[in-house]
Write a structure and sequence with these properties.
Length: 445
């Protein structure tokens, strides 16, 4: 990917090389020695510490609280105060903290002189005004992004919500990369035959530490246009970010990490690594042998529950289909391919569309809107495919949804309750949620 750096190409930060960043060479400017940008101004910091009445020989504020004191714990002061907490007497302790991220240095995530603890992080996320200076600085954005992701996967930020997702997504865009905690050692895929081919990418089966994994790589062509490349890169970053944030969810394919490869100089491709599922997708499941109505009904219920839970986490899939639902060895289903996923904003009204079937024959549903209602419509198409064996693309769905014609339901000559649910998914006057659908599918629960 053009704007995603590999692990080895990440900016040098004190997480990886604290001593070089902190004791780098100084610059000679007209006879004066000017500190390098990466070297902390300890004299200035010591002056700020003196203003805080921290006298020599007493317990330092870092020792005492490992965060800013209560007088400074406002969003406006958190970043500036915590970034000045380093001095010569704290250097050794800081080096240990920087070299052992998430280790023994307490609940601190610190990089390059910036300190954030979980409560500070949540304060910054919740303050639209005070986070703006960070959003305007790529290096600071990288620091905060890494902090948020670290605490998120450690469970220190509470439940995943739209605000955290939105902030991470924006920080990732500004930093031009994904959180450092996502990157793993590159895997060799050169010379391997692709196992699965999708519209935007190829999937390879690779053995990592004795276990098969799936490596998803965006498809690359020398002659591809810049717009196509940007769309592919954005799709890959979005998918990786959502998979990383949902890595503890049983209904999402397990996420392992990402790495970059460079097919040509100056261009890189993002590779997303997830667990390999030998049973394949629900699309494969329907083709292996004829399925009974009870089996189909059970599968529909599982997928509906997964979609309901995904929406509860603040994410819409926007491309739910039998090919994007994997089957685990234990029979559970896992959603995959989150490249078109989007964040559901709290309180955001569900959009609706009106499509003229004659004038807008080639309209794509995804261009009309995205979000929970698109998932509901496409879930109806998924159910329709499982019951009839007929796949409906987004053009067909746009005509059905916009024109209000439900004649396709005539093809379902069994399971009246499922037919009625599909009809609700495709009816503009009835905005049905995935939670409503689960309730209809499981009336006794």
């Amino acid at each position: 990917m053009g704007n995603v750096m590999s692990r080895s190409c990440l900016p040098e930060c004190s997480l990886c090389i604290p001593k070089r960043r902190r004791t780098g060479p100084s610059k000679e400017v007209e006879g004066e020695t000017e500190p390098d940008e990466g070297v902390l101004d300890t004299a200035k910091i010591q002056g700020e510490r003196d203003q805080d009445n921290t006298s020599p020989g007493t317990t330092s504020l870092v020792d005492k609280e490992r965060r800013a004191p209560s007088s400074a714990r406002t969003p406006a002061n958190i970043s500036s105060y915590l970034s000045s907490m380093a001095s010569k007497e704290d250097d050794h302790r800081k080096e240990e903290s920087l070299c052992n991220v998430g280790g023994t240095a307490g609940d601190n995530c610190s990089t390059s002189g910036f300190f954030y603890d979980p409560s500070d992080t949540l304060r910054l996320i919740s303050s639209d005004i005070e986070i703006q200076p960070i959003l305007r600085a790529p290096y600071k954005a990288s620091i905060l992004m890494d902090t948020i992701y670290k605490y998120l996967i450690e469970g220190k930020l509470g439940d995943l919500d739209a605000k955290i997702l939105t902030t991470l997504s924006e920080l990732s865009r500004i930093a031009g990369r994904l959180p450092s905690g996502m990157y793993i050692e590159p895997l060799v895929i050169d010379g391997l035959d692709r196992s699965v081919e999708t519209g935007y990418s190829d999937i390879y089966k690779v053995v990592r530490e004795g276990i098969p994994v799936a490596v998803k790589q965006g498809r690359f062509a020398i002659q591809e246009g810049e717009k196509h490349r940007e769309e592919r890169d954005a799709r890959g970053m979005r998918e990786a970010l959502f998979l990383g944030c949902l890595r503890d969810c049983a209904f999402i394919v397990p996420f392992i990490g990402v790495f970059d490869t460079r097919p040509v100089d100056h261009w890189s491709l993002l590779n997303i690594v997830t667990s390999w599922q030998n049973n394949g997708s629900v699309s494969n499941w329907t083709k292996t042998k004829p399925r009974t109505l009870d089996e189909i009904r059970g599968m529909i219920v599982k997928i509906a529950m997964a979609m309901r839970d995904l929406h509860a986490r603040g994410i819409a899939h926007n491309d739910i289909a039998t090919r994007n639902v994997l089957l685990g060895v234990d029979g559970r289903i896992m959603l995959c391919d989150l490249g078109l996923a989007s964040i559901i904003s709290p309180g955001e009204p569900t959009p609706s569309i009106t499509v003229n079937p004659v004038e807008d024959e080639e309209v794509e549903l995804a261009k009309c809107f995205e979000g929970p209602q698109l998932d509901v419509i496409m879930f109806g198409a998924l159910c329709y495919e499982l019951l009839t064996g007929i796949y409906l693309d987004q053009r067909h769905l746009a005509l059905i949804y916009g024109g209000g014609s439900l004649k396709h339901l005539e093809a379902i000559d069994k399971a009246n309750d499922l037919r009625d649910i599909i009809g609700r998914c495709w009816t503009t006057s009835v905005l049905t949620s995935m939670a409503d659908i689960v309730a209809l599918l499981t009336p006794g629960n």
